[in-house]
Structure prediction request, 74 residues.
Amino acid sequence: MNPMHQYMLDNYRAAQWGGRLPPQPGLHDWQVMRELRDYRHVQAVLAGHPVHGRLRAALTRLLHPRRPGTTGCH
Prediction:
């Protein structure tokens, strides 16, 4: 059963019992993603890590490793 089938079944049950209709599948997905991002930012701050630029810094380290003996200046 996919989410749409479950939603339709829940709507049917709510109509039969006079309850509230459930939210549509995917209605609050963006809100959940924003809350997850905020949670990860708080966890980074509590751990003493920078909040912004972590992914870019990790990709830079992975794709452009420093050679021994270089100063890192371009």
About this structure: The mean pLDDT is 84.
